Amino acid sequence: MTTYIIRRLIMMIPILFGISVISFAIMYAAPGKPTVMDLDPDISVEAREAQMERLGLNDPPHIQYINWMSNVVKGDFGTSFTKKQPVRDMIADRLPNTLILMIFSTILAIIVAIPFGVLSATKQYSKLDYGVTMTSFLGLATPNFWLGLMLIMLFSVQLGWTPVGGVSTLGADFSLLDRLHHLILPAIVLATADMAGLTRYTRSSMLEVVKQDYIRTARAKGFRESTVIYKHGLRNGLIPIITIFGLMLPTFIGGSVIVEQLFSWPGIGKLFIDATFERDYPVIMAITMFGAVLTVIGNLIADILYAVLDPRIEY
Amino acid sequence: MSTLLQVKNLKTHFFSKNKVLPVVDGVDFEVKKGETLAIVGESGSGKSITSLSIMGLVPKPGGKTVDGEIIFDGTDLLQLSENEMFKVRGNEIAMIFQEPMTSLNPVLTIGEQITEVLIYHKKMSKKEARQKAVELLKIVGFARAEEILDDYPHRLSGGMRQRVMIAMAMSCDPKLLIADEPTTALDVTVQAQILELMKELSEKFDSSIILITHDLGVVAELADRVIVMYGGQVVEETGIVELFDNPLHPYSKGLLGSVPKLDEEKERLSSIGGNVPSPDNFPKGCRFVTRCEHAMEKCLTEQPELKEIYPGRKSRCFLHDEGGNE
Ligand SMILES: Nc1ncnc2c1ncn2[C@@H]1O[C@H](COP(=O)(O)OP(=O)(O)OP(=O)(O)O)[C@@H](O)[C@H]1O
Ligand code: SF4
Ligand SMILES: [Mg+2]
């Protein structure tokens, strides 16, 4: 198992390298120049040139890439063009906010999706099943930004139950309740699509499981339906879901870009949007690589969990 | 011998949108204490659904036992609440299935799957249950039972898994064991061992067995009495010797004719032409009429009843009324 994990970690290196090349190329080919150039309309042509030269933007793209990469392997992600701060610090500042949002919405997605998926499967074709199915399709089809806007309109503007944005009340002392209060709406929005997808996966996985012979054996032992489903069924049904879950991990990053923007949530996603508008190359590359690492790690975690849950898999 | 189980006029039907399938349609039989009753019949004759009806595990949605009585040890199981049935299943009536490869839960160890029954029904502690599980595994023929306990099913062969299933079924010392084609999926050599084991255990534990099988060789080996099923009904009920010597019902005769005899040059695997009618178009009269070489006018329109022809021998055929059953 350990050698397997080590092998997989080594295999990540070329994958991440490939992703970095492609991302760099796409970013470079995209129209627009770093806005740091346009900040002051009075800036002289010479000064601008000097700035370009200083940031290395006049070098040919492959040289720029090599310079960037040689710093990255040393753990240096460069300095933000616009904020003049080290990118690493900027990310480190915002990562906790994003992680809190991700973890909270993940937990939310799981605790809603799994029970409803199981119920939907065990009561196939019941009213409850149709209700859950309808709701999850709605959840899948609703765009995050629209749902977010609607929830803000309703709960923040109309009812005034939740704050409009941010992680905490400005100027107030730290309070868990205040944090949760700010967290709840963005977490719900971020969780919606995955919750819906996870419910569907759980349902179809459990539908497959309840047809299996070992479920009949468990019933023949005299167990109550809850034992049959949760002890004998769910353990099996979760195996494919865990895999999908690992693969879903990076989608939270994608989702957080929109949600953080909407709720002015100072996390990685918001940083990414700002950096994209400003063509702040070092920040864009660092966050892209962060997403890439999360993706491959999510895959690895899924595979490891698969092996842990399914005794038939051996490495 | 006293009676352990009495099934009377059992009807289990499947309901779909616009059809009712009378899959088990008025089945009567009884099982005495300590005896092995075989149920034989072609595929689709309702053997499995009959046994699942006794367990109260008719496949849902769609299946439902609509009529009859299943008197087990003095109580009608059909009158019991689901809560009361939980105490019967796996405890007083245990069941093993045809597919040993898939009947064990792949993500739980053998030990967990045996001990959970003991903990649940016999309220044993984990430790006691483990000891008992080792004991049971030894009885069913695992020399190194302690090691098997922590193994997962995928490491065992089909024959070994069926032994585990048997150990699990016998764990609570059930009064009745229902075995639905326990050896069909196994190699011939393994089949013999499993049958031997079942015979041994039924004597040791003094439990009754309902043995469902296609294989008349298995019947001859293990059973005391046999019922022959056709189209969701019992067509003959008789002692084992009598069945082989002198089957009463034309269908039983056909079935016996389809057992290949070793000294016969051509293997005649089926001497009964045609197929079992499916439950959605059972003939109006005798269910066997489409394939019976003795069929009469009356057989097309009227259903024969299961009648005692000789003491302890019943058959469902109009021929017996005519006085000629040979
Ligand atoms: N879930 C179900 N829904 C509808 N019909 C069913 C269902 N299960 C079984 N049947 C029908 O019931 C009839 C009897 O099935 P059963 O499984 O009892 O036959 P069997 O005698 O055990 O056959 P085999 O020897 O193949 O196991 C068959 O015609 C089958 O198609
Ligand atoms: S009742 Fe008629 S059709 Fe049915 S088995 Fe007897 S002779 Fe054949
Ligand atoms: Mg069957």
UniProtKB/TrEMBL annotation, chain A:
Q: Which PROSITE patterns match?
A: ABC_TM1
Provide a GO biological process annotation: transmembrane transport
Q: Which InterPro entries match?
A: BPD_transp_1_N, MetI-like, MetI-like_sf
Its localization reads: Cell membrane
Protein name per Swiss-Prot or TrEMBL: Diguanylate cyclase
* Residue ranges occupied by any ABC transmembrane type-1 domain in the UniProt entry: 95-302
Q: Does the keyword Transmembrane apply?
A: yes
Q: Which Pfam families match?
A: BPD_transp_1, BPD_transp_1_N
Q: Which UniProt keywords apply?
A: Cell membrane, Membrane, Transmembrane, Transmembrane helix, Transport
Segments crossing the lipid bilayer? 9-30, 99-119, 131-160, 180-198, 238-263, 283-309
Q: How is the protein disposed in the membrane?
A: Multi-pass membrane protein
Name the domain of life. Bacteria
Protein source organism: Anaerobacillus arseniciselenatis
Lineage in the entry?
Answer: Bacteria, Bacillati, Bacillota, Bacilli, Bacillales
A single cellular component GO annotation: plasma membrane
Q: Belongs to which family?
A: Belongs to the binding-protein-dependent transport system permease family.
Q: Does Membrane show up as a keyword for this record? A: yes
UniProtKB/TrEMBL annotation, chain B:
Q: What are this entry's molecular-function GO terms?
A: ATP binding; ATP hydrolysis activity
> What membrane topology is given?
Peripheral membrane protein
Which Pfam families does its entry note? ABC_tran, oligo_HPY
A cellular component term from Gene Ontology for this protein is: plasma membrane
Q: Which intervals hold domain ABC transporter? A: 5-256
Q: Where in the cell is it found?
A: Cell membrane
Q: What is its main location?
A: membrane
Q: Which GO terms describe its biological process?
A: peptide transport
Task: Please give the InterPro entries that the UniProt record associates with this protein.
Answer: AAA+_ATPase, ABC_Ni/Peptide_Import, ABC_transporter-like_ATP-bd, ABC_transporter-like_CS, Oligopep_ABC_C, P-loop_NTPase
Q: Which PROSITE patterns match?
A: ABC_TRANSPORTER_1, ABC_TRANSPORTER_2
Q: Which UniProt keywords apply?
A: ATP-binding, Cell membrane, Membrane, Nucleotide-binding, Transport
**Superkingdom as given in the UniProt entry:** Bacteria
UniProt family annotation: Belongs to the ABC transporter superfamily.
The name under which this protein is listed is: Peptide ABC transporter ATP-binding protein
